[in-house]
């Protein structure tokens, strides 16, 4: 049986690789849906038409064809600061560990948010993000509570899908916490697994099941991306009542699969003031119609729990998909948007991410905002654009010091710091 399963998984992997392409000369011509063409055939000519007519129409297309329905039901969530220290990280920050109870009667349905606030700034802007393996991986700070949730076997320091003391600070390089605080920003993060674990069966114990009657939505009406995006909005709910931060200046960042969730959260919650996609690839910032790197078919075969069921039906007919990534990015307008790629991360299709960001500029122009002026791919480490900004970084699939330097400079400029 084990040999048979191994053969099956190997066969599936080979089939997926066979469907992929990383040769730019083999990319076939494609036509993008016109983001400004309304259902009646007329074109959007001003920001009012976009906000009142076209944006709601495109948003519904994403609900129906890619992400599934985003819960509209308001819930009576509760917050409690479980731990706080005004002298965290050798006195440079205040640390708060906040529990958000999501269910009105089931106390086991909650998420834990880790918040660091710089002590030398009054009401700082705040970056929010989900993390992959638990809040304790963000910093070596020994006072951060270890997650008790299931974690992936890939999680550093994990044993039998549980976090251990060896997990502390396992992902500090991705967060650059001290730099962020020194630049005058707060950070709020939560483990994506608090909302739903990243497995095919994660919905059974995640919010898509535990909250289905409260949110009036069934598990099959949305995917893990929607659950994670909805969770990000709950972090925003908390920040809006924490007087120590400026909740009008929330910057949302997401990497890889959590970058896809960040884009959907930014599209769904306009309280988020700035959105950053770091190598979000297929289903995120990369154009699906470009046959390069990961494809709609591959991503749904490998991660069928991420998106709505209808998205899977476009695997062999991607050109019939009524939406594409440039339309998702356009839903962020007129708020500042940063899209970033890595030169060696061909799976995420850097050029597809760039072209998507370029195309989104057509909507930003309706608001008098400047995007990226040319469709010529920039050289590595040469950021381009204004309110829509992009860079291609040298290196692999990751969040690096270089990335954070660009994001902090961008957010500082846009927030008037």
Automatic annotation (TrEMBL):
Keywords: Hydrolase, Serine esterase, Signal. This is 4-O-methyl-glucuronoyl methylesterase-like domain-containing protein. It comes from Niastella populi. Gene3D superfamilies: alpha/beta hydrolase (3.40.50.1820). Residues 220-368 form the 4-O-methyl-glucuronoyl methylesterase-like domain. Pfam families: GCE_fung. InterPro entries: AB_hydrolase_fold, GCE-like_dom. It comes from the Bacteria. One of its GO terms (molecular function) is carboxylic ester hydrolase activity. Residues 1-18 form the signal peptide.
């Amino acid at each position: 049986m084990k040999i048979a399963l191994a053969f099956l998984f190997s066969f599936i992997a080979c089939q997926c690789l066979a469907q992929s392409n990383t040769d730019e000369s083999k990319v076939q011509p494609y036509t993008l849906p016109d983001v400004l063409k309304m259902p009646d055939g007329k074109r959007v000519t001003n920001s009012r038409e976009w906000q009142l007519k076209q944006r709601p129409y495109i948003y519904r297309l994403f609900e129906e064809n890619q992400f599934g329905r985003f819960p509209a039901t308001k819930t009576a969530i509760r917050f409690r600061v479980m731990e706080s220290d005004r002298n965290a990280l050798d006195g440079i920050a205040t640390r708060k560990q906040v529990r958000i109870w999501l269910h009105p009667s089931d106390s086991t349905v909650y998420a834990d948010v880790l918040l660091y606030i710089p002590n030398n700034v009054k009401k700082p802007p705040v970056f929010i993000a989900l993390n992959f393996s638990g809040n304790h991986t963000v910093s070596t700070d020994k006072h951060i509570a270890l997650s008790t949730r299931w974690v992936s076997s890939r999680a550093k320091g994990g044993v039998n899908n549980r976090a251990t003391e060896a997990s502390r600070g396992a992902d500090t390089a991705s967060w650059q916490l001290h730099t962020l605080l020194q630049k005058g920003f707060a950070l709020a993060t939560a483990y994506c697994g608090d909302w739903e674990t990243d497995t095919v069966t994660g919905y059974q114990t995640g919010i898509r099941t535990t909250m289905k009657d409260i949110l009036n939505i069934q598990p099959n009406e949305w995917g893990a991306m929607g659950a994670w995006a909805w969770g990000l909005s709950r972090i925003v709910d908390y920040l809006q009542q924490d007087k120590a931060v400026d909740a009008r200046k929330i910057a949302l960042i997401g990497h890889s699969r959590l970058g896809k969730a960040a884009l959907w959260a930014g599209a769904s919650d306009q309280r988020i003031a700035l959105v950053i996609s770091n190598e979000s690839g297929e289903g995120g910032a990369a154009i699906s119609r470009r046959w390069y790197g990961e494809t709609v078919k591959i991503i749904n075969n490998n991660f069928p729990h991420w998106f709505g069921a209808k998205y899977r039906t476009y695997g062999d007919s991607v050109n019939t998909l009524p939406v594409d990534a440039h339309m998702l990015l356009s839903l962020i307008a007129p708020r500042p948007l940063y899209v970033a790629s890595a030169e060696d991360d061909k799976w995420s299709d850097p050029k597809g991410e760039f072209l998507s960001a370029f195309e989104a500029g057509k909507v930003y122009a309706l608001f008098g905002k400047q995007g990226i002026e040319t469709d010529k791919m920039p050289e590595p480490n040469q950021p381009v654009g204004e309110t829509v900004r992009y860079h291609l970084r040298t290196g692999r699939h990751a969040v690096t010091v270089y990335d954070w330097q660009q994001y902090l400079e961008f957010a500082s400029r846009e927030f008037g710091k």
